[in-house]
Write the structure tokens for this entry.
Amino acid sequence: MSGIDERLTFHPLNIAVLTVSDTRNLDTDTSGALLAGRLTGAGHMLAARAIVTDDVEPIRAQMRAWIADPGVDIIVSTGGTGFTPRDVTPEAVMPLLRRTMDGFSVVFHQASIGTIGISTLQSRAFAGQAEETFVFCLPGSTGACRDAWDLVLGFEFDSRYRPCSIAGQVPRLRGLCA
């Protein structure tokens, strides 16, 4: 049976949050704030938080910096995954990935269909691994970030989740959790 096994030790992850937006700042970034609040509320560490414009090079530069940072286990980005001309997060991030996590997109879309219906088709949410860092790219809406955290990532990032969680694949936690 899948779920959180409360008998196991919780191992917090170091998670960086990147907002991709031409219009948001720290005061108006509700999606980044929601993710930061959810992850710290769950017991994880907010390793860093930044906002960059919807341009390939600033997105890549911030991603590369965090991928190279041993203090960042996971990067969660919000924004730039749609189909407007300025949405370039997949084009910026996918070349950095050495592996893709195809199942994340599938599970995210299954979760969000319950809240936004068939409109979930307009999201290019995706995930993968860049070097040893896991990267999850979400839509920019606060609702999509809520769905992603509450229905998918909150479980996936919890080291007590069984039969396994991504925590067991983070290099510093290998061997400590499954």
In short: The beta strands are 3-4, 14-20, 45-52, 74-78, 99-100, 126-130, 133-138, 161-162. The mean pLDDT is 95. The first helix runs from residue 30 to 41.
